[in-house]
Amino acid sequence: MILSSKDTQFKLAEDGQIFWQKEVSNPLPGVRIGHVTKGDALTLPKAEIDISDETGEAKEDVRVFVQGWLDRHIKTVLTPLFKLKESETVPENPKALLEKLFTALGILPREDLQSLISTFDEEQRKALRGFKIRMGPLLVFLPELNKPAAVRLRALLLTLWQGKDLPAQVPTDGIVSFSIEDRDIDKDYYRSIGYPVYGPRAIRVDMLDRVVCAVYDAAKEGQFQAQHQMAEWLGSNIADLYKVLEAMAAGMPVISTTI
To answer: Hey, how many other C-beta atoms are within 10 angstroms of the C-beta on 63?
Structure first.
């Protein structure tokens, strides 16, 4: 089997299968040639070749070729995450933050990083600006990873790394939040793919951060009041908004609720 070097001819499906399409312009997935398996690191899955007409050295050549594509594909979709590894000139403490954030797929509770953040001087903070990290009141995250393709790929990688069956559980593309009531879910998993859980909803981290900041801006004498606009931002009803804000307030001890 002769494979072209054009990366657009390959596709990684949500169930971990790898397809090859001879004609780049053809919208159909093409021929299934392999699948991904757990690798030595979360972001380094292995490509396995399943085609039966290749054996020995020829099959290994195909595997190496496809592995190269898979590695490039992951680094392209998750470019903001892999940029965190470009930290040779970053001071020690900010570099430690970048390493922790990379390991966590680009999102962590601020309280997990606060001991590092509190040591940063202005020069160290300046060294981090090029990485486009959002240090929000509740979460530290990479906003550019909120794109649907990055959410789906993080979900696939994490599910594979945890030894669970594919396809991964993943929110509808672009959805702002969704109810988790009556569902047995892994909250750490949803946070890692960009949808942290507060109260009865999993909320896309950028919109959650918007609500948190609005809460701080609207607070008076350490108290805030729920606003209908916040429910619109979350795509939720008012009852859920109250529960979300109460859960958020537990992580914001300087502000109390009056809802």
So the answer is: 17
The pair of structure tokens assigned to 149 is 């393709």
Look at phi and psi of residue 5 and say left if phi exceeds 0, alpha if psi is from -120 to 50, else beta: alpha
Q: What is the pLDDT of residue 79?
A: 98
In 170-189, which positions are buried (b, 16+ CB within 10 angstroms) versus exposed (e)? Answer: bbeeeebbbebeeeeeeeeb
Please report the pLDDT score of residue 220 as a whole number.
64
Q: Is residue 197 within 8 Å of 244, Cβ to Cβ?
A: no
Tokens of 13: 């499906």
Burial 120-136 (b: 16+ CB within 10 A, else e): beeebeebbeebebebb
pLDDT at residue number 258: 32
Structure tokens at 21: 């399409």
Low-confidence ranges of the chain (pLDDT < 50): 2, 253-259
The span from the CA of 99 to the CA of 88, in Å, is 12
Prediction pTM value:
0.89
Question: In angstroms, rounded to a whole number, what is the distance separating the alpha carbons of residues 36 and 13?
Answer: 10
How far CA 226 is from CA of 116, 163, 242, 254, in Å, comes to 32, 41, 7, 16
Q: Distance (Å, rounded) from C-alpha 124 to C-alpha 206?
A: 24
Q: Tens digits of per-residue pLDDT, 180-191?
A: 988 888 999 999
